[in-house]
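Renewal narrative, Specific Aim 1. Our central claim is that a sequence can be written position by position from structural information alone. The example that follows is taken directly from our test logs and has not been curated for this report. It begins with the structure tokens describing the chain, in the order in which they were read.
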């Protein structure tokens, strides 16, 4: 699920919104198909989803050492939100937060706090700010900077 961050009404924001709508449509259309037992993400199975995610600044799901490093960085600042029971949710939240970071969204700390609050875990805006720093310092979002037009 893609959570939209607050954004100013600009042409860039309109393009981001359009790409997010496209992503939602692609995800909806492919939700009934594919190989459910493969363990691959929807973006791995459908290049259209991967392209739509990339268009809104969402990086591919990390694997191996990259995944472990990102989770370690997140656990250092928000241990409950990135504990072993919530690893997949934390990774999804980090990927979505990259869209806000790369898109220049306002109030990133509040957006991160909201994205990393789930299953009874409440993440504060201060932790949200630390999450943003951890994500940015890890370089996880760096390769996904959105093109300027």
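The sequence written for that structure reads:
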């Amino acid at each position: 699920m893609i959570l939209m961050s607050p954004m100013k009404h600009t042409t860039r924001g309109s393009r981001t919104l359009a790409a997010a709508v496209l992503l939602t449509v692609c995800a909806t259309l492919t939700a009934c198909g594919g190989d459910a037992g493969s363990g691959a993400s929807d973006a791995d199975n459908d290049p259209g989803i991967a392209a739509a995610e990339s268009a809104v600044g969402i990086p591919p799901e990390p694997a191996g050492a990259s995944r472990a490093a990102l989770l370690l960085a997140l656990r250092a600042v928000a241990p409950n939100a990135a504990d072993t029971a919530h690893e997949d949710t934390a990774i999804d939240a980090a990927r979505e937060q990259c869209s806000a970071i790369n898109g220049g969204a306002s109030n990133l700390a509040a957006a991160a706090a909201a994205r990393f609050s789930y299953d009874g875990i409440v993440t504060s805006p201060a932790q949200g700010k630390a999450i943003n720093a951890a994500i940015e310092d890890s370089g996880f979002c760096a390769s996904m900077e959105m093109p300027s037009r």
